[in-house]
Amino acid sequence: MTDYTPKPEHKFTFGLWTVGNIGRDPFGSEVRPAKTPVELVRLLAEVGAWGVNFHDNDLVPIDATPAERDRIVKDFKAALAETGLVVPMATTNLFFDPAFKDGAFTANDPKVRAYALQKTMNAIDLGAELGARIYVFWGGREGTETDASKDPMESIKRSREAMNFLCEYVLDKKYDMKFALEAKPNEPRGDIYNSTTGHMLAFIETLDHPDMVGVNPEVAHEHMAGLNFVHGVAQALDAGKLFHIDLNDQAFGRYDQDFRFGAVNLKSAFFLVKLLEDNGYDSSRHFDAHAYRTEDYEGVKDFARGCMRTYLILKEKTAQWNADKEIQALVAEINADDGSMSKYFGKYSAQKASALRTQTFDRLALGARGLGYERLDQLTVDLLLGVR
Ligand code: DIG
Ligand code: MN
Ligand code: MN
To answer: According to a count of CB atoms within 10 Å of the terminal CB, is the N or C end of the chain lower?
Structure first.
């Protein structure tokens, strides 16, 4: 039994909006009293988090005066100093206010698009002031209910123009900051542009400063799209674009549930933790999730502790899986290679191609071979269930 106490080196973070979620949903009002940012920082310190993230308006209300802003930021900085929590990530709320009902950067109204840029520059300044080096963009309202309303080509251009402008802003201000784009297929819009992490990876390559821009995949959002989250994260890792990650859980075919990490599908959570740990992911492990609406603030703390505890248990299971002799013998068997085909792989050459043309294959034997995946998967299940 290992110690599953969260430590700073684990880089566990929560947004103010996660543990501060007061339980409102489309069919019911709040069930918990709101806590101030300072109270939430103290709650996160109590449960052992390393960092705290925020949308601009989680911290500074949209109509706050400059004097109110300064006081709020001063108090927040004092709470960070008191608790030792850091601010690795910040983001802009471009989805709650009615002004953004038709989107922010892709809104048809140019005044809304311009206001969204202005609001984001102010929010980037706030994030930089508090030490954030990752800036997330989740375009919750960037989409449509009817495609009669917007030309999708124009929307892509508007998104690109906004990203290019804001990258230039960060460069101009000399902030040490990178952008992480977060995808979601739908909700609150009927359809949201750049709907999956794969779309975002393609979009990034069309920008003027692609090196400054990565992705922030979220478990729930890729599950909503019916996708294997581990495969999407692997693609982001392979592209050097996994700048941040939103950990939570989600049943397939449901609204955005934002459940506690590992609360629904432990097996995919295990393979995700294994992927992150095996590949030395060293950015925040951010839990973009919230407690059940049934909970009081003791339950919220249980939720936050559970996110981190499950991650650490699965991190231990990863080490166990990697060290398990029977599992590793099967993995070696599955990947057995006598080297006889090596001469055909790697960079193309005409010689290689013509030699491969003459190679004969026993196709029936290739198809008849049993691969032992049932045994390997059961060993994995045994290990996850603690009987191995
Ligand atoms: C929702 O999954 C989004 C917003 O909460 C926020 O903009 C982003 C940051 O993690 N995730
Ligand atoms: Mn979500
Ligand atoms: Mn998220």
So the answer is: N
